[in-house]
Amino acid sequence: MIEKNNKKTIRSWAFFDWANSAYNLVITSTIFPAYYTIITTTKEHGDKVTFFGKTFVNTSLSNYALSFAYLIMALTLPILSSIADRRGNKKSFMKFFTYIGGLACMALYFFKLDTLEMSIIFFSIAAMGYIGGVLFSNSYLPEIATEEHQDRVSAQGFSYGYIGSVLLQLICFLFVLKPEWFGIVDASFPPRLSFLLVGIWWIAFSQIPFSVLPNGKPQTDKVKTNIIKDGFSELTKVWNQLKQIKKLKGFLISFFFYSMGVQTIMLAAAGFAEKTLKLGTAKLIAVILIIQLVAIPGAMLMSYLSKKLGNVNILITVVVVWIGCCIYGYYITNEYQFYSLAAIVGLIMGGIQSLSRSTYSKYLPSNTPDTTSFFSFYDVTEKLAIVIGLFSFAYIEDLTGNIRYSIIALASFFIVGLIFLVILRKIENKELVKL
C-alpha cells in the first residue's frame, strides 16, 4: 500500500511530468513543428511531401501520423492497463513506454528531408511512448492522494511539468538562436540536437519516480488465467461499473468532446503559426515558453477556484473561453495577435488539463483496486478525441487548402462539450438537493 499524501511520494510522482513534458514542449509544440515545416517546404514542391509514394500537405502528414499513434494506443491501452492491475506491474509498463519514447526522440537526431519516412515513424513511436507513460502515471493519482488533495497534487504535477520542460527548452533555445557560440555551422544541427536532449532528459529524470513509486499489488486470484482474457475480462467489469455512475459517465462524454479541441490546438498550434504567420523558430519558441510559464499559475488558479466554486463550474467557464479562442484564432493576421492569444491559451491550458484529471479521479468509486483500468477509460477517451480532432484538422486543411478553417471547426467540439458539462452540473445539483 502507498501512504497517501506523503510529500516524498508526491514529489517523485510529479517528477514524471517534469521528465516527459520536455517531449510535449520540444517535439509537439515548438522546435520539431518549426523544423519539420521548414525542411519539408521546398521551392520545387511547396508544402507538399511524399510519404511512401503518396503525396500529402506537410502539416497534414504530421497530424495524420500523430492521429495514427493515438489510435493505436487507444486500442491497446485498455488491455495493457487491465493486465497491469491484475499483475501489479504498472511501473514496468511506465518504464517500457518511457524508454521507447525517449529512444525514439533520440533517433529524431537523424531527421533530414531524405529520411522523412523513417523520421515520421520515430515521431509516431515517440508519441506512443508519451501516451503510454502518462496513462500509468495518472493511475497513481488516487493512490497517492486523498480526494480533498487531488486537485492540488494534480496541479503540482502539471507545474513540475511546465518548469522542467521550460528549463530544457531554454537550453535548446541557446543552441537554436546562438549556434555560433558553440561553433555550429550546420543549421539543422541545433534542432536535431534538441531532439536528442529530449530523449536523454525524459529517460534520466524518470528514474526519480521509478525509484520511489511501487509496482502495485497483484490481484492473485486470477494470475494463472490467460493474460489477454484477464485484460478483456477486467475491462468489461470496469465498463459495467462505469455505466452505473452517472456523474462519471457524463463527465467522460463532455471530456471527450472538449478534448478534441484542447488537445488538437496544443498539437497543431505551432504548425498553424509557422505556416500562416511565418513566425520563425526563434519567435515560436519564445511564444511557447510564455505559454508554459503562464500555464503554471493557471493550473494553480484553477485548483484554487475549484475549491471555491466547484470543479464543474470552473470547467464550464474555461470551455467558454476556449470557444472564444477558436473564433479569435480564425481572424489572426499578425504576430502580436498571436501573442495575445497565446497568453490566454497558456492561462487556461494547464487549468483544464489539471482539473479534468482530478475531477475524474474524484468521481471514481471509493477504494477501487482498479485505478489503472479506470484511468484507461479516461486516457482512451482523450486519445480517441485526439484521433478525431487531429484527423478532422488535417482533413479540413487537405480539403480546403486553408488551415484557418480547421481552427474554426474546433469550436464546434467545445460547444458540444459545454452542453454536456451543463448537464453534468444539473446532475450534481440534484444529488446535492437529495442530501
Strand arrangement within the widest β-sheet reads 1-2
Helical coverage, percent range: over 70%
Beta-sheet strand percentage?
Answer: under 5%
Roughly how many Å is the radius of gyration? 21 Å
* End-to-end separation: 32 Å
* Global shape: globular
What string, H for helix and E for strand, traces the elements in order? Answer: HHEEHHHHHHHHHHHHH
The number of helical segments is 15
Task: Say how many strands there are.
Answer: 2
Organism: Pedobacter jamesrossensis
Protein name: MFS transporter
Main location: membrane
Membrane topology: Multi-pass membrane protein
What do these coordinates show?
With 435 residues, the chain is mainly alpha-helical. Helix content is 80%, strand content 2%. The protein has helices at 7-27, 31-39, 58-87, 90-107, 116-138, 141-144, 150-177, 189-212, 227-243, 246-277, 280-309, 311-331, 335-363, 371-400, 403-434; strands spanning 48-51, 54-57. It has a two-stranded antiparallel sheet. The model has no long low-confidence stretch (mean pLDDT 84).
Keywords:
single chain, transport, 435 residues, membrane, transmembrane helix, transmembrane, mainly alpha
Short summary:
A hairpin with a 2-residue loop joins strand 1 and strand 2. With 435 residues, the protein is mainly α.
List the helices and strands and how they pair.
Elements: H1 7-27, H2 31-39, E1 48-51, E2 54-57, H3 58-87, H4 90-107, H5 116-138, H6 141-144, H7 150-177, H8 189-212, H9 227-243, H10 246-277, H11 280-309, H12 311-331, H13 335-363, H14 371-400, H15 403-434
Antiparallel strand pairs: 1-2
Helix pairs in contact: 1-5, 1-7, 1-8, 3-5, 3-9, 3-14, 4-5, 4-8, 5-14, 7-8, 7-11, 7-13, 10-13, 10-14, 10-15, 11-12, 11-13, 12-13, 12-15, 14-15
Pfam families: ATG22 (PF11700)
Membrane topology: Multi-pass membrane protein
Keywords: Membrane, Transmembrane, Transmembrane helix, Transport
